[in-house]
């Protein structure tokens, strides 16, 4: 086997591992999204306009589902971050700089959501149950909301750059039709998150973008792993 063939084979192994890790991670994110959806949005989402009373009561009422979202999400995020970074590194090695940059942006988004998922159940829920903890709860809730929106924007921008690159090459990592769907969801998430930063009531749209993105990228993870193994 010549060096080029060996290099290609090694790259395929990296993509296979990345695709498998991504698939497992995104499946976890789908489950996490379901727990978020079952929780009161005033507490578990970057709800606009911000209402401290509603957020406090929501964190108390939704303690079980918010804690479940936290537990599933923060471990799934670690697996997902690993897979996303592996794909980014392999694309960078192949000289596909724009696509690699997009995957790195999505990797950063996962790191941000690791903090978000940790906070939702491990910080907000205990603070809501703490006597006199309203002030601390408010501060962490503002941070939670900002990180949630920032993570959504990073994911959306990363998806656009990564998948738009696939629409312009002869051997795309992701099929073009699937890439266009991912691009549309990424753009939708960016618009919804920016709207929330402007205090528009678009938090449910942000959640929908994350859920749809998780579904599409689960399929993408499976496709990457299968193609790399073939």
Would you give an account of this structure?
This protein is mostly helical. It has one domain. Helix content is 84%, strand content 0%. It contains eight helices and no strands. α4 runs antiparallel to α5, α5 packs antiparallel against α6 (134-166) and α7 packs antiparallel against α8 (203-229). It is elongated and about 60 Å long. It starts with a helix and ends with a helix. The model is unreliable at 1-7 (pLDDT under 50).
Fold blueprint:
Layout: H1 3-37, H2 41-44, H3 52-61, H4 63-93, H5 97-128, H6 134-166, H7 176-197, H8 203-229
Which of globular, elongated, flat, extended, rod-shaped describes the shape?
elongated
Total count of domains: 1
Low-confidence stretches: 1-7
Order of helices and strands: HHHHHHHH
Strand content is under 5%
Number of strands: 0
Question: Which features characterize this protein?
Answer:
mainly alpha; elongated; 8 helices
Summarize the entry for a quick read.
This protein has helices at residues 3-37, 41-44, 52-61, 63-93, 97-128, 134-166, 176-197, 203-229.
């Amino acid at each position: 086997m010549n060096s080029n063939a060996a290099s290609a084979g090694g790259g395929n192994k990296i993509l296979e591992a990345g695709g498998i890790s991504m698939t497992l991670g995104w499946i976890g994110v789908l489950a996490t999204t379901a727990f978020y959806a079952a929780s009161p949005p005033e507490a578990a989402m970057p709800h606009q306009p911000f209402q401290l009373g509603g957020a406090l009561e929501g964190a108390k009422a939704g303690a079980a589902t918010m804690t479940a979202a936290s537990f599933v999400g923060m471990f799934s995020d670690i697996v997902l971050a690993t897979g996303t970074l592996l794909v980014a590194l392999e694309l960078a090695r192949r000289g596909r700089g724009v696509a690699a940059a997009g995957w790195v942006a999505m990797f950063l988004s996962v790191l941000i959501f690791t903090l978000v998922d940790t906070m939702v159940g491990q910080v907000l829920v205990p603070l809501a149950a703490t006597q006199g903890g309203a002030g601390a709860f408010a501060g962490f809730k503002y941070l939670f909301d900002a990180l949630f929106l920032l993570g959504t924007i990073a994911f959306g921008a990363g998806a656009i750059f990564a998948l738009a690159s696939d629409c312009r090459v002869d051997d795309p990592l992701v099929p073009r039709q699937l890439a266009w769907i991912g691009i549309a969801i990424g753009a939708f998430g960016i618009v919804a998150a920016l709207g929330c930063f402007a205090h528009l009531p678009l938090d449910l749209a942000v959640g929908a973008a994350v859920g749809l993105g998780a579904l599409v990228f689960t399929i993408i993870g499976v496709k990457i792993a299968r193609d790399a193994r073939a």
